[in-house]
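Sample pair:
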Amino acid sequence: MQTYVFDNTLDGLLTAVFDSFFLKQQQVMLLSEGEQLPLFAGEPHRVVTDSGKAERVWKGLEKHLSKDGLRMITISWLSEERALNQPLFNMICKVFKPHPLPPASPLTPLQRARGTLGEGGAFGMKERMDITQNASDEDVLAVRNTCRRVLHEQLRMKQFIRFQKAKDGTYLAVVSPDHNVLPLIIDHFQDRFNDQPWLIYDAKRHYGYYYGAFPDPASPPSLTPNPIPEQSSPTRSLSPIGEGSDYRVIRVTFEDEAAVPFDLSSGKMDADILSDNDKLFQDLWRTYFKAICIKERMNPKKQLSDMPRRYWRYMTEKNE
């Protein structure tokens, strides 16, 4: 079995798929840079990421997979789990290999008269099928389960994000999700809060999205000192982030996170830029949260299941 080492990017993985077919090496162990080589392994093949090769593989996937299948690949990749690399590589390779179709169903008299084939085609006929629909395949199942975890995480982010208002009218939310789900939730907040500027920042991955109105795409939002705006989409084949009538979304990072006017560990905004009435609203929200609690029905175990403790540090109702 040949060992491949790649740079842990989606383009790098697609390039590895291209190389495996070009070199006619079907049995491949895929490792990312920094992973330990297996015992007695020979010289590994170093995959040099090539956007041209990756694009050719992706276009091939577009021909053989449904939109749901392509979406499953891109969403699962946002998990950032190294354990996904091998099953995802195997699944993509299987897309380009011929698979036997199920036995043909009996022909009806009408089909026999017309000389057509029953469902499933002729016996022994082989053609490519949408492998992502085959849940009995262990590689497909692993990718599908990873995709499900990412989608579950993005749903929780929509539920548990809490905003704070700055004096300049900008709303801030700091998150630290297990998976890189910000690209999946931005459209939701853009639709829901399309008349107010906001910044959602991922403290774990050191980037965020700012939504606001400013004439120059490179002009920084007032809440964020020295941001580095980026217009490119962070993932392949995800729907692009659109523009509102006067507002738009940009991806931002910070040259110096120590200078940002909020605490990355707790998500709390500095008191000197916090809106005068936001503290009041936070207290009102905590009071409401406590008031609706029915002590006789308290179920801490169920609450932890629905609202895991790892989200609490950024939630207003869980912090005094």
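The chain has two domains: 2-150, 161-318.
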